[in-house]
Amino acid sequence: MQLPADFKAAFTEAWQHQAAGRLLDAERIFRELGKSGAHRHLALEALADLYLLQRRFEECLGILTELTDIDPDSAHYCTKLANLLDSLGNTDAAIDAYSRLLQQRPDEAIAFFNIALLYKKQERYEEAISAYEQAARLGIDRVEEVYSNLGNLYAEMLDADKAREMYQRALEIAPDNVSALFNFAGYFEESGEKEQAIELYERIQSIDAKHWKSLARLAYPKKITDDDQSLVGRLKKCIDDLEDDKLAQEVLYFALGKVYDDLENYDAAATAFVAANEISRQRVLPYVPEQTERIFGQIIEQFDSSWIESRVTDSEVSPIFICGMYRSGSTLLERMLSAHPAIAAGGELKTLAFLIAQYLGAFPQGVMGATKEQLRRIADEYDRKVRELVPDSQFVTDKRPDNFLRLGLVRAIFPAAKIIQTQRDLRDNSLSIYFQQFSRAASYANDLQHIAHYYRQQERLFAHWRECCPDSICTVKYEDLIESPETVLRRVLEFLELDWDAGVLDFQKSSGLVKTYSIWQVREGLYSRSRDRWRNYEKLLGDVAGQAAADGTAV
């Protein structure tokens, strides 16, 4: 494209200003060039990029919207606009942007692929499937990525057979596609097929020895023994080779810690876990105990018995919520209950949090003015979405652990809901969290003192919920569950108003996908290795152990 000499000179001058940090001068020139002329779109795009660099998001959105008005057929401008909208939390508007583009260009395969990603994010599964299929029909490049993503989508929908079919189709097209191989290996982990998972991770390693994610995953499907000592060296070498990639090192150190723990080299394991969490603290915003105390205090003050009773709906939807601290036994309990003929495992569903944000706003401050009508709409929409995933079961569990924050709202939305708190010895619970990589949302998870603080705040909040709705909450101690499973499960089923079924004691034979950090532990049946594990790490725990013994959070 031949640019007019005066435009080119001014555009170059603006870039030079930007490179030198003279952003106001660059903005002034880009603005002037973007006012008119055949090439104004180039200046406007440069201006949008400048605003994005400065985190001036609203101004950037305005320019990108103007660009899509200038050229509504441009997939490039649409994608930039949609990506920004989605990153700012406005996924609906991002979907609208792609929808407008597809009205102009109904054969734009990549737009169908991208809108499918957004539909999945909103749990609009059927629309996501349709968009992916249309992208494939239109002959999108690297169509194996479509089928690999469909595999992930069906796995999220708990349709194991369809997920397997999609992964296989992807690999029929591109047998050495590392992304599809990695996704399929993850599927095998979730379905309990450990040998197949290990085989695919090793196959990825043979294709790309630098693929650190597959190397790290080799630590997890089985207990590492002396026969697997070579994995220690492979993990260490990869950590050394990736000294400039802190995220990779974090993941690899967690894997190395798990390997050393299996080998009962607890000092080396502790060193690896400390290294992993030190890197995590660079990635995650600092945990502020006072802020947690203030937020939990706000929840307690706002969602009291009178607030709940004044807004309780007439919904008869009766989900089973299993919540509490991460790594407190919720996956094990859900797995056992799902062996009952009346109960299906929903896993860690995002549905409730998504609907609250969509219909009410930010929690907790945005929901105080919620009406019964709004809450009833959430109840109905929640039931519809969950029944899409698990259509035939009488009851479905929702074991997203942090739902304990929303139990006042849960009680108002679903008066027939049953709530089970899973509880574990603070010392073992803290270590189990510390030994896993968590998202930025769990900012407490990389410091043992902070985990203990959050644990106590969670207990403080549960004490409030038990005062507000004493008949709706049942507490299950992890240690009791593994020591006396029948006694505990009889009590839980009685709480759920269900008859006893001995199948819950034979839960490890259950099929279905397990999509949590406890993916392999629950496949082994009941085991006591995780009880009193803290004794191997007393030095690492430091004051946490003594504090737990003193305040009764030790079991």
Largest sheet: 5 strands, parallel
DSSP strand content: under 5%
Helix content: 55-70%
> Gyration radius, to the nearest Å?
26 Å
Mean pLDDT: 93
Runs in which pLDDT lies below 50 for 5 or more consecutive residues are: none
Q: What would the CATH topology of one domain be?
A: Rossmann fold
CATH fourth-tier homologous superfamily of one domain: P-loop containing nucleotide triphosphate hydrolases
Termini separation (Å)?
73 Å
What are the salient characteristics of this protein?
mainly alpha; five-stranded parallel β-sheet
Structure description:
The protein has a five-stranded parallel β-sheet, with helices on both faces. It has helices spanning 5-19, 23-33, 40-53, 57-70, 75-87, 91-104, 109-121, 125-137, 143-156, 160-173, 178-190, 194-207, 212-217, 230-241, 246-262, 266-283, 289-302, 305-311, 330-337, 351-359, 372-389, 407-413, 426-434, 448-468, 478-483, 485-495, 538-541, 543-551; strands spanning 320-324, 343-345, 395-398, 418-423, 473-477. Helix 7 packs antiparallel against helix 8 (125-137), helix 10 (160-173) packs antiparallel against helix 11 (178-190) and helix 18 runs parallel beside helix 22. It has 555 residues and is mainly α. It is 61% helix and 4% strand. The protein is built from 28 helices and five strands. It has a domain at 298-551: P-loop containing nucleotide triphosphate hydrolases (Rossmann fold, 3-Layer(aba) Sandwich), CATH 3.40.50.300.
